[in-house]
Design goal:
Mean pLDDT: 81
Shape: globular
Number of strands: 44
Radius of gyration: 27 Å
CATH architecture of the largest domain: Sandwich
CATH class of the largest domain: Mainly Beta
Number of helices: 2
CATH topology of the largest domain: Jelly Rolls
Distance between the termini: 19 Å
Largest sheet: 11 strands, antiparallel
């Protein structure tokens, strides 16, 4: 680990699990609407879909003046507009009927509203209660280290026998780790001594990280992915393009038709940046006729209202000129096709607001965000959000050196300090294995395609029962430490499949995040897509090693060919769970 001093090393604690918001809508069972006439309507606001987009003013017609009838109409509307799931048939609660609704996106979302349209509710006829608040996974440092240590040990088992020729022989035994830290603690921090003390008293295990300082608060190196954080409006996104650092995390943003509100954005929860100035940097380069892009940073409240955040914008490196803003949207002109421009956006004030829930970082292709055209196309990569007003070198958030595991809190001590600080000490003992850089065990037994068996209709790797499902019109061949895939038809062909049949092994858990690493050693043509990801994302096939993170929608890994023909050679593949 590239630790320079103790202040660069922090012990992180996971303070909140990511979860979706659950909202209960209660409506009076009998005559909830005043002076009712069939055909009147009600309005639903703050409908949040899986991409985090919000719909207001959804109008629904009411034909029957009962709580059950109105809830059934609301259920249908929320499912259609926002993809909500619900608890089913309305449940009786005294004079009310209710249904619980779960939106699709993890993270904080505005509360649903059901209000009068042409129909007028009787007073007290509608109640809306948030049963479970939506929230994102948040890691915060328990304190700012003055010292920290991590000890990992492995016991030895004596396996000496009479055949050991007088020498002691040992085998690996039980492993364990201990972690301790002394730190200067900000008593105004919402996470810290109280939390650790509660963990000590209750006796629950906690997630701890022994880590380099996390500079980049963006959750992924890709500028797309989890719709809880990334989404677009009227933009075509081409993924897995080469970024400034030789990886394939960039994306091309294209405007499919002329108009306004054509953008791509990253959404960050308020919890880690509130009360601080922040700096957002991103790399952009021209790819269309127009050598321009526009950037915009703003906040959003729990009710869905937008709040402008005053910023300063400058060119950190590369070609380009910052223009005068329109409604706080800054145009960047003079972008180059040959190299990336790094743009720096810094808030003029600290992020604050009593109802502020999240901050959105938005890019528009083109110089005029109110009139984007099909000529407006840009490639963007390597977004970074950090606290403070200076721009650090880009930090890939998936490559921060760390050790991570579950532990019990052994001890906590606090000594009073001066001003708003105190000296904090804590120690932790591991309850399980410690993982390096947040990745778990290797889940694929045959990483180099060394063990190959051929049976009728498919080729199968020895461990963990890999197979190649192919049609007779397609050709493929294997040789030591590589697998060449070649297809010549548009038939349904799984290039690699581990699908739980014919004795195959399920290697993943639905809903968990995984990192897939693979090496393409030769490429002729064709595309692949990841068929274990709900978005069926296309994956890079250029020669080199690639890393893809995805949330699995099935228990097996499947990589599928795309298109009518192709040929490439893969020489390595690895799959590990990502521990958040």
């Amino acid at each position: 680990m590239a630790i320079k001093n103790a202040s660069d090393l922090l012990v992180y604690k996971k303070t909140t699990p990511a979860r979706k918001q659950v909202t209960r809508i209660k409506i009076k069972s009998s005559t909830p609407i005043k002076d009712f006439a069939s055909g009147q309507n009600i309005i639903i606001n703050n409908i949040t879909d899986a991409a985090g987009d919000i719909t207001d003013g959804e109008t629904e017609t009411i034909y029957t003046n009962t709580g059950t009838a109105i809830l059934n109409i609301i259920s249908s509307a929320l499912a259609t507009v926002g993809g909500y799931t619900n608890s089913g048939t309305p449940t009786t609660d005294g004079a009310f009927k209710y249904v619980d609704y779960t939106n699709g996106a993890n993270g904080p979302v505005p509360t649903l509203e059901v209000v009068d349209g042409t129909a007028e509710f009787n007073e007290g006829a509608v109640e809306i209660v948030v049963i479970t608040s939506g929230q994102s996974i948040v890691y915060q440092p328990i304190a700012f280290s003055t010292s920290a240590s991590l000890g990992v040990s492995k016991d030895l088992r004596d396996i000496t026998t009479k055949d050991s020729q007088g020498w002691q022989e040992n085998a690996k035994g039980l492993g364990s780790f201990e972690l301790s830290t002394d730190a200067l603690w900000d008593v105004n921090n919402a996470v810290g001594v109280e939390s650790a003390t509660e963990d000590l008293i209750v006796g629950d295990s906690v997630d701890v990280k022994f880590s380099d300082r996390v500079v980049n608060l963006v959750v992924t190196e890709n500028v797309y992915g989890d719709p809880s954080y990334w989404n677009s409006s009227n933009i075509t996104v081409t993924k897995h393009l080469q970024d400034p650092f030789g990886q394939f995390t960039a994306a091309k943003l294209e405007v499919p038709s002329n108009g306004t509100s054509r953008y791509h954005q990253y959404i960050h929860p308020i919890s880690t940046i509130e009360g601080k100035k922040i700096t957002w940097t991103l790399y952009v380069k021209k790819t269309g006729t127009s050598p321009a892009a526009s950037v915009y940073l703003f906040g959003q409240t729990g009710s869905g209202s937008s709040v402008d955040i005053p910023v300063s914008v400058e060119i950190e490196s590369g070609s380009g000129t910052v223009g005068s803003p329109t409604n706080n949207v800054y145009p960047i002109t003079g972008l180059s096709t040959s190299g990336f421009t790094r743009i720096k956006v810094t808030t003029n004030n600290v992020i604050s607001g009593s109802d502020l829930q999240e901050v959105k970082f938005r890019i528009y292709p083109g110089a005029d965000y109110t009139n984007t055209t099909t000529a407006d196309k840009v490639i963007t990569a390597s977004w970074q959000v950090e606290t403070g007003t200076s721009a650090s070198d880009y930090q890939n958030p998936t490559e921060v050196d760390c050790y991570q595991g579950k532990a019990f809190v052994n001890s906590v001590s606090v000594d009073s300090g001066v001003e708003d600080n105190a000296t904090y000490s804590a120690s932790f003992t591991g309850t399980s294995e410690i993982f390096i850089n947040g990745l778990g065990y290797e889940l694929l037994g045959d990483n180099y395609f060394d063990g190959v068996q051929t049976t009728s209709g498919l080729n199968k790797f020895l461990v963990p029962n890999w197979k190649f499902v192919n049609d007779s019109s397609n050709a493929l061949s294997f040789f030591p430490s590589a697998a060449r895939f070649k297809w010549v038809s548009n038939a349904n062909t799984f290039l690699i499949s581990n699908d739980g049949t014919v004795g195959d092994i399920s290697v993943m858990v639905v809903g968990k995040e995984y990192e897939l690493t693979y090496t393409i050693s030769a490429y002729v043509s064709g595309e692949l897509f990841l068929d274990a990801d709900p978005n069926n994302q296309t994956i890079p096939v250029s020669v080199g090693t690639h890393k893809i993170r995805f949330v699995s929608d099935r228990a097996y890994l499947k990589i599928n060919k795309q298109g009518t023909s192709g040929e490439l050679t893969m020489s390595y593949i690895s799959l590990k769970e990502v521990f958040s």
